[in-house]
Amino acid sequence: MTLEQFDVQNVTNSQAVVNEYFIQATNEIYKVPQLVLFPTISYSISF
């Protein structure tokens, strides 16, 4: 039996902030968003 699965994370395309950096040269905070769409593909074989 073979099982194939395809899953897409962040289907609603939300832009959550993952990390923030402070840039001293410009005195600004740079926010790093998460990936837009992240596909996950899995494949398994059972005997």
Order of helices and strands: EEEE
Q: List the uncertain runs.
A: none
Biggest sheet: strands side by side, in what order? 1-4
**Biggest β-sheet strands, sense, barrel:** 2 strands, antiparallel
Protein described:
The protein is mainly β. It has one domain. It is 0% helix and 62% strand. It contains no helices and 4 strands. Strand 2 (17-23) and strand 3 (28-33) form a beta hairpin. The termini are close together. The mean pLDDT is 76.
Keywords:
mainly beta, 0% helix, two-stranded antiparallel sheet, 4 strands, 47 residues, elongated
SSE inventory with pairings:
Layout (H helix, E strand, L loop, with lengths): L1 E8 L7 E7 L4 E6 L4 E8 L2
Antiparallel strand pairs: 1-4, 2-3
Summarize the structure.
This protein has 47 residues and is an all-beta fold. The protein has strands at 2-9, 17-23, 28-33, 38-45. The chain has one domain.
